[in-house]
Amino acid sequence: MRLRDLAHARTGDKGDTSQICVFARGPAQFSQLERTLTTERVASHLATLRPRRIERFVLPNLQAVNFVLHGVLSGGVTRSLALDAHGKTLGAQLLDMEIDDA
Amino acid sequence: MKSIRIGAGAGFAGDRIEPAVELVEQGELDFLCFECLAERTIALAQLARQRDPAAGYDPRLERRMRAVLGPAMARGVRIVSNMGAANPLAAMEAALAVAREQGLTGIRMAAVLGDDVLAGIAGEDCALLDRTGSLSDIKPISANAYLGAFPIAQALAEGAQVIFTGRVCDPALFLGPMIHAFGWAEDDWTRLAGGTAIGHLLECAGQLTGGYFADPGYNDVPDLARLGFPLAEVNEDGTAMLTKIAGTGGRLSLANAREQAMYEILDPSRYLQADVVADFTTLNLAETGPDRIAVSGATGHPRPDTLKVSVGYRDGFIGEGQISYAGPGAAARGQLALDIVAERVAMQRLAVDDIRYDLIGVNAVNATGRAPEPAEVRARVAARCADRATAAEIGAEVEALYLNGPSGGGGVTTTLREVVAVASILVPRGAVVPSIVHGVS
């Protein structure tokens, strides 16, 4: 099963920091997200980003897990050479992660 | 309980015009707010103002005002916007001119000033917030503090029907009318946090009602070509009902509202604003009917002693070139194209500060490292250089691949632009003094 089957995601940016919030499609999926979606798994799935630091915030009230990836936007949208300088495509890429059915 | 209705007329400078008209005509609004000022836009606007003292405000201001001013004033809808950018006073004058041209006399407008702190930071030094280095490493061309909502509330209290600001916290555009209507105190952290949450949900307009959300088969959204923008019915206790005009496109779903609540939020327990530190870990969103989301529960902590300042500076030029390859071996030919340009850049000792080689379709935005063989690729080279002529060489080298590069290269495009970058610093709250100027059409 892919993360996309359990969740949806929205990506934002602040300076050189990307923020990807992953939202469960239901309560059962939320406990699965909380259990399986670790900072290590996010970093290894988005393998070429190599964040300086990743923070993870769990939001039971919004059935969400928020990831804050520092230092991944080539200096930020105003001076980055990247095609997607905001990193807006990252959340959808994260949804391609394989998740165990357990 | 007393309530007011606030609409979101735009979520960025380039946003569609007609959803705001729809909100004014059918939303039974009290206030309509337009968020049109991205982080870098104000630095570019400052450059425009240096060239022409009457410029420096949002170039689409007149167009938006021609569309909404008449219907809004006829229905008693008051307008708040950061379309003032680097020149709120000129923005007000331009909007007054639109009012006069439409025969709307006696319309009271105001400009909120004081966010421009460029003179105040001259000669100062401090660490940059979101990257290494300090203020003395860059040559600022603009410096704008994020003001809060109280100057907007004051301008409304003084009778302004249309208000233009420069840099303010985006949610403050919406919080200002709430403070004015309900008389919230400067230390009422719970209500200020509640209003901030509502403003934050509204500030990107269509991103709350189905924009940036649709994913066919997973998150289906009807009629995005006619996307309706959201409005909030806000209560004096800082709770609200979010909705949109019946019959417009899009959908205001719980899933979409949750996404927008967390958009660009780092630590959700500490959303830093000029007026309050809002905590969204207690936020409650509930679907109470089709296109109806109830918002409550945000909590607040005392506002920070410092204000964030966006500092704009010139950072050289970015030159870019792209060329496409298709068919068997497309990726290998694209890679060969990139290798050729890299060798040419080295041979000619082009002075690049930073250069990047992408294969669009393989690894330009894809961060997973996995890439099946594509049917087509687009080789892309982008470099930041101190001088314009060097940056222009990047596009020229890519264009030369037409005759000198791999087989079957087509569709070259080249671009060259000056870079105005933005860094952030913090300044003491007391160093920023907002003021208000009024005008009448």
UniProtKB/TrEMBL annotation, chain A:
It comes from the Bacteria. The lineage of its organism: Bacteria, Pseudomonadati, Pseudomonadota, Alphaproteobacteria, Sphingomonadales. InterPro entries: AtuA-like_ferredoxin_dom. Residues 1-99 form the AtuA-like ferredoxin-fold domain. PANTHER family: PTHR47708, SI:CH73-132F6.5 (PTHR47708:SF2). It comes from Novosphingobium pokkalii. Pfam families: AtuA_ferredoxin (PF23544). This is AtuA-like ferredoxin-fold domain-containing protein.
TrEMBL record, chain B:
InterPro entries: AtuA_N (IPR010839). Residues 4-435 form the Acyclic terpene utilisation N-terminal domain. Pfam families: AtuA. This is Acyclic terpene utilization AtuA family protein. It comes from the Bacteria. PANTHER family: DUF1446-DOMAIN-CONTAINING PROTEIN (PTHR47472:SF1), PROPIONYL-COA CARBOXYLASE (PTHR47472).
